[in-house]
Amino acid sequence: MISEPRPSGAAKYVLFDVDGTLIDALDNQRLVWRTWARRHGLDPDEVHRVALRTRPVETFAQVAPDRDPQECLAALHALEDEDVRSGVYGAFDGGSELLAALRPGSWALVTSNYEHRVRGRFARTGLPVPEVVVDAAAVEEGKPSPVPYLLAAARLGARPEDCLVIEDAPSGVQAGLRAGMTVWGVNTAAAVDGVHRHFATLREAVGDILAFASDPLTDRPA
Q1: Annotation says 17 is catalytic
Q2: For 115, what's the count of Cα atoms within 13 Å in the CB-facing half-sphere?
Q3: Which of 17, 24, 135, 168 is labelled catalytic?
Q4: What is the radius of gyration, based on Cα positions, of the chain?
Q5: Of 19, 24, 83, 168, which is the active-site residue?
Q6: Residue 88: per-residue pLDDT
């Protein structure tokens, strides 16, 4: 872990990843990719391993280079939409309490998924949806590019140095760091490389996140 950026005395903002951070969807993602792989006659374990570290189109290029990527994507999207309707998943402990306590307009979601799926999952798990949602359709460059987090900050009217990113995945952590933001990791046994602070669970981070968001004058280590 490295030192956090020094925030200004302005208002603070919190930018959340979704899957793996607020929503426990790991098993759902694994099932979707394995189902997709079997339907295409591919090794489910290998496909899922690649999918964990790449965007879907990049996954298709590696595991099914001879197939139409748009057809592959359409099939994947159909499976993901069905999962939103019938899959079993939930919010991580502390998520509902945390989001309800944040000031409206002070937080956003930054996801590699699509907004309609996020809204569907949030509706089923009782989580509130903020005014700003940056999804896969909003940017041409996804994580680990800083573009998604920078766009969320711009839509909130926030400066990067006044933003706290909450992530669980290496690509998201790198995106937040490259955006010049404070990055805290949650829901992993060990700290993801580069995070400024690490919490084993989201629940453990709730108090600190709310303190960051509510006290713009709090000084932090440079």
Answers
A1: yes
A2: 12
A3: 17
A4: 17
A5: 19
A6: 84
